[in-house]
Amino acid sequence: MKYNSSISNKKLIKELEKSAMEIRINLLKLCNQEVIHIGGDLSITDVMTVLWKYKINYNSKLPMDESRDRFVLSKGHASALLSFCQASIGCFSVEEIFKEYAKDKGIFPMHACNLLNPFVEVSTGSLGHGMPIACGIAAGLKLKNNFSSRVYTLMGDGEQSEGSVWEAALNASHYKLGNLIVIIDNNGFEADGSIEEITSLNNLAEKYRVFGWRVDEINGNDITEIVDFFDNLPPVNGEQPICLVAKTIKGKGISFMENNVCWHSGKINDKQLIDGITELKEAYRKMN
Ligand SMILES: Cc1ncc(C[n+]2csc(CCOP(=O)(O)OP(=O)(O)O)c2C)c(N)n1
Description:
This protein is of the alpha/beta class and about 290 residues long. It has one domain (about 5-285): Rossmann fold, CATH 3.40.50. It contains eleven helices and five strands, in the order αααβαααβαβααβαβα. Strands 1-2-3-5-4 form a five-stranded parallel beta sheet, sandwiched between helices. β2, α7 and β3 (about 180-185) form a beta-alpha-beta unit. α1 (about 5-35) packs across α4, α3 (about 45-55) packs parallel to α4 (about 80-90) and α6 (about 130-145) packs parallel to α7 (about 165-175). The protein is globular. It binds thiamine diphosphate. Thiamine diphosphate binds near residues 77, 158, 159 and 250.
């Protein structure tokens, strides 16, 4: 891949790295308050930050605007991350998330719910359903001659063991859904073990390629590579669905959580919160 090293691009990268750090800090603060799916939130924070702060065409004042890009959180347990990304573009405030997350009658349950929250495109949580629904939305947009909106969906690598994913992958290619972008958080772990132990995927990218998809593989914790991926997407009216295999680290940024399956979900104590924030700030300082 070619990277744009212009000054404006460097400034953008710096801003996005700062936003990703801020979102990670908010995730830790929430994790000090409630049990959240912290490991798989932290792994894909960089990709989600770039998508929401830089790429997606989404007006926080008009969540039902027909011309919007659609986002479906297929790994619905990453609802806290989605909420902080949406707060960062003004859908609601960060304070509302801290106040209402996982509370009765709040709009931020543990799994994304569109009956409660108008900024959630599709209710998810049962793995293997969001991506097929995203395929249906992409097909519907094509039928309506909407060639300006993309459909993004985020899946886990553990989620790949759901059969519905592969049925949808076949159909996306058959119906030439070039407006569809599937992002796979390839962090190597699911809830209680490594992907290798539970259902190995071997060459995940190759699997999508033989299903007829364009596949890009990047370091999903490198903001420059992520920006480059989004900058080089083909036009929306293309004919090949796109799969981004984002190689990430589960628990990214917090050393006691990284690649540690115990931190798929959980709650942290006050000391872990302070240590975690210090580590994130230090890593950001070293980067810049
Ligand atoms: C159909 C279904 N089976 C089981 C679960 C329980 N579950 C929640 S998260 C998870 C692990 C998912 O792993 P992965 O997709 O890799 O997510 P990540 O590691 O990125 O958080 C499981 C099995 C579920 N939500 N839905």
